[in-house]
Amino acid sequence: MSRPPAHLMWADALALMSRAEQLRRGFFQPVAAGWEPPVDLLETEGALVIVVALPGVAANDVELVVGGGEIAIQGLRRLPPALRSARVHRMELPQGRFERRVALPPGTFELSRRELADGCLTIVLRKVA
User: Fold this and answer.
1) Who wins on pLDDT, 83 or 31?
2) Taking every annotated instance into account, which residue ranges of this chain make up the domain SHSP (predicted)?
3) Which class for 99: exposed (0-12), middle (13-18), buried (19 or more C-beta within 10 A)?
């Protein structure tokens, strides 16, 4: 016995909504250190470029450690002081400590530049011969 098309469309819509919610939750993965920001890792001829989504994070609240074939990006996202006493109706951006460890491709790298702008931290690791 087949189900009417309306039931199939409803089941498909629910499945799509469930998948969209999974993707939204996966954007900021919770980890033991708090939360884990999403990262892009790109390679040019002379450098690795890492872009980390850190909305609302101050530059002096981010620490970088390069070594052992990886880079560790850690820090703190603070709720703005003016909002600390606000009543929360919905909060999807993670707060508190974060840490992200990214394995680097084979080679030797040194930190060349870091810049935090428009909610993204851009890290340039120069390839060392």
Assistant:
1) 83
2) 30-129
3) middle
